[in-house]
């Protein structure tokens, strides 16, 4: 996501401006409205929550009278010797056997059965090759081709069966399989509680349905509710993904996996999902992830949030509450209380305390806006910030109402009362445009009501204004400033010997070129047709010290990264009238004329400025 602010790089002034900004800004607002209409933010959350509720209601209604509440790890039940002592017990009947024998001495109260043995208990039929039938205890041991048939939907197979008719507990061993419609459970040891309609294994097992294959060391399955619970080394295999967990709940009817333990999902080796709570519809590939779950893509993007709704098939995600999206390739982070990202369109949006952090360079940049949007224009990255944009970096800070950036032309545009600060400089205008090259700002244009203010101290400010200001940078340092059209300056020259103020120099010209060296004004070049006066520092007062469009917003300047979230009441910027006000001084008595002292100061200390008035000016020597 370096697309957001790669234009900042290591330059002194990162920003933007060009003509037609009113039309462009209108187009941006229209684009945002259309984008919102197409994306329908938070729609995925509604659809997933609705789909989650529907299956559970149907299952509860259809199974309410069929089963008791499932239990985990049921306690071993003691054999009831006398079935008549248990009021709820029913008798096991022998229906068929080719041979029957018994030996009261060797096996008292045991009937030995062989050949096509069949028992009936309530609505279940039990088949085997041979069996020991304990009629008095209402139980049996079955061997060879064991099969339990319950209705027309449930079939249980195994090599051995130990069945207690009083508790309806069937213990099957070796090559065990339970088939319930299109779901098959296989294991080596299975206990099936017919009273609770619950089967469970504890030595490892596997459940296969139309969509998934699940294995674990311990598990239980309810044929009535189709609910399964897995513990220890749970592994879910799907044609598109795998899921590994310590604990997992799964419904074979809805194909929904409820994540109740630390889980890891790997989707086609392109996406890793980490979660300890949530649910995943493995049929539709939609999921709800909770408790700071993580979605990590192989392109370097990672999303973390309190709640994430993710449609893997559509490759679309919505995050809610403290959402953080990292991009390790572009070295940027997008943060917001609501964030969405479309993997196919490579577009995303963050709102509600939205912030972009660019850590691609040594100086980290922090950008805030009411809404931050990223997208792809063909192969080019585009970033947009709408409303109350503020940013901070150690060397530059700024604010505006909206901004855009495109890697197509590497230009960033700032709209509606943009202001930039760098060191003790403030730039402002109606529209600012920054041109970048190799991730560094090389030129900044300020259009209409352009103003550059440099703070000399708490009382005095050097000022430049005009229709257009063009600032040229080299290696991140401001080298030259061109002021084109109605150029005005107020400058406080300093004595090189003791750094004391010499006076106040005010000029008016068509064009002005300001040259800087070591971050200080080196010389000023004016056009041949220009006016300029030097005044003693004590002579000018009030608005005479400021240009017409002067304002200083030091209180709104972000001084640390947390300040980008500060909110200020919208108000018109305070401006000076620009009228000339001077104090009376000794001399000819005319406060508007230059005194002998001011004349001598002007002649001795501003020779560079006076001599420059005979030059061609910015359009000749230094114009672009």
Main attributes?
single chain; 624 residues; mainly beta; 36-stranded antiparallel beta sheet; rod-shaped; disordered N terminus; disordered C terminus
Map the helices and strands.
Elements: H1 21-39, H2 43-63, E1 93-96, E2 99-103, E3 107-121, E4 124-134, E5 139-150, E6 154-164, E7 169-180, E8 183-193, E9 198-201, E10 205-208, E11 213-216, E12 218-221, E13 227-237, E14 241-251, E15 256-259, E16 263-267, E17 271-275, E18 278-281, E19 286-297, E20 301-311, E21 316-327, E22 332-342, E23 347-358, E24 365-377, E25 380-393, E26 396-406, E27 411-415, E28 419-422, E29 425-428, E30 431-437, E31 440-455, E32 461-474, E33 477-491, E34 504-517, E35 520-526, E36 530-535, H3 596-605, H4 607-612
Antiparallel strand pairs: 1-3, 2-3, 3-4, 4-5, 5-6, 6-7, 7-8, 8-9, 8-10, 9-12, 10-11, 11-13, 12-13, 13-14, 14-15, 14-16, 15-18, 16-17, 17-19, 18-19, 19-20, 20-21, 21-22, 22-23, 23-24, 24-25, 25-26, 26-27, 26-28, 27-30, 28-29, 29-31, 30-31, 31-32, 32-33, 33-34, 34-35, 34-36
Can you tell me about this structure?
It is a single chain. The chain has 624 residues and is mainly β. It contains four helices and 36 strands. It has helices spanning 21-39, 43-63, 596-605, 607-612, and strands at residues 93-96, 99-103, 107-121, 124-134, 139-150, 154-164, 169-180, 183-193, 198-201, 205-208, 213-216, 218-221, 227-237, 241-251, 256-259, 263-267, 271-275, 278-281, 286-297, 301-311, 316-327, 332-342, 347-358, 365-377, 380-393, 396-406, 411-415, 419-422, 425-428, 431-437, 440-455, 461-474, 477-491, 504-517, 520-526, 530-535. The chain has a 36-stranded antiparallel β-sheet that branches. The longest helix has 21 residues, at 43-63. It is rod-shaped and about 130 Å long. The relative contact order is 0.10.
């Amino acid at each position: 996501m370096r697309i957001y602010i790669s234009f900042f790089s290591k330059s002194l002034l990162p920003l933007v401006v060009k003509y037609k900004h009113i039309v462009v800004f209108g187009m941006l607002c229209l684009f945002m409205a259309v984008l919102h209409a197409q994306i329908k933010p938070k729609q995925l959350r509604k659809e997933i929550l609705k789909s989650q509720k529907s299956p559970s209601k149907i299952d509860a209604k259809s199974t309410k009278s069929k089963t008791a509440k499932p239990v985990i790890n049921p306690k071993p039940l003691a054999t009831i010797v006398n079935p008549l002592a248990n009021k709820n017990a029913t008798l096991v009947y022998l229906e068929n056997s080719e041979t029957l024998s018994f030996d009261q001495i060797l096996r008292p109260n045991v009937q030995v059965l062989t050949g096509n043995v069949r028992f009936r208990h309530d609505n279940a039929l039990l088949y085997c090759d041979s069996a020991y039938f304990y009629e008095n205890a209402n139980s049996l041991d079955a061997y060879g081709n064991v099969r339990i048939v319950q209705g027309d939907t449930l079939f249980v197979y195994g090599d051995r069966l130990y069945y207690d008719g009083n508790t309806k507990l069937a213990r099957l061993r070796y090559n065990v399989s339970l088939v319930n419609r299109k779901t098959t459970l296989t294991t080596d040891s299975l206990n099936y509680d017919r009273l609770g309609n619950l089967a469970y294994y504890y030595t490892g097992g596997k459940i296969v349905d139309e969509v998934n294959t699940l294995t674990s060391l311990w598990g239980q399955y309810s044929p009535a509710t189709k609910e399964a619970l897995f513990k220890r080394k749970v592994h879910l295999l799907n044609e598109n993904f795998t899921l590994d967990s310590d604990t997992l709940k799964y419904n074979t009817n809805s194909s929904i996996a409820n994540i109740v333990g630390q889980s890891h999902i790997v989707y086609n080796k392109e996406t890793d999902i980490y979660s300890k709570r949530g649910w995943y519809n493995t049929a539709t590939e939609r999921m709800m992830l909770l408790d700071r779950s993580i979605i990590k893509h192989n392109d370097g993007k990672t999303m973390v949030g309190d709640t994430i709704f993710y449609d893997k098939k559509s490759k679309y995600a919505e995050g809610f509450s403290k959402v953080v999206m990292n991009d390790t390739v572009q070295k940027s982070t997008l943060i917001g209380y609501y964030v969405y990202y479309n993997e196919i369109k490579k577009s995303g949006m963050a709102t509600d305390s939205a912030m972009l952090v660019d850590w691609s360079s040594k100086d980290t940049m922090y950008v805030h806006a009411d809404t931050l949007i990223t997208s792809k224009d063909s192969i080019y990255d585009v970033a947009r910030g709408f409303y109350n944009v503020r940013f901070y970096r150690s060397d530059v800070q700024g604010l505006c109402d909206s901004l855009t950036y495109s890697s197509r032309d590497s230009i960033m545009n700032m709209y509606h009362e943009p202001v930039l600060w760098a060191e003790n400089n403030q730039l402002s205008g109606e529209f600012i445009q920054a041109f970048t090259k190799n991730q560094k700002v090389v030129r900044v244009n300020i259009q209409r009501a352009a103003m550059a203010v440099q703070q000399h101290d708490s009382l005095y400010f050097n000022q430049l204004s005009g229709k257009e200001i063009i600032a040229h940078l080299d290696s991140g340092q401001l080298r030259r400033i061109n002021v084109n059209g109605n150029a005005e300056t107020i400058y406080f020259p300093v004595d090189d010997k003791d750094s004391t103020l010499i006076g106040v120099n005010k000029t008016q010209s068509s064009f002005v070129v300001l040259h800087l060296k070591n971050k200080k004004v080196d010389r000023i070049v004016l056009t041949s047709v220009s006016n300029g006066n030097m005044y003693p520092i004590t002579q000018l007062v009030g608005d005479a010290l400021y240009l017409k469009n002067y304002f200083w917003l030091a209180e709104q300047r972000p001084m640390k990264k947390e300040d980008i979230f500060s909110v200020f009441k919208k108000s018109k910027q305070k401006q000076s009238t620009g009228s000339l006000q001077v104090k009376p001084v000794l001399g000819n008595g005319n406060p508007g004329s230059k005194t002998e002292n001011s004349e001598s100061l002007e002649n001795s200390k501003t020779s560079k400025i006076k001599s420059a008035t005979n030059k061609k000016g910015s359009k000749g020597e230094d114009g672009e």
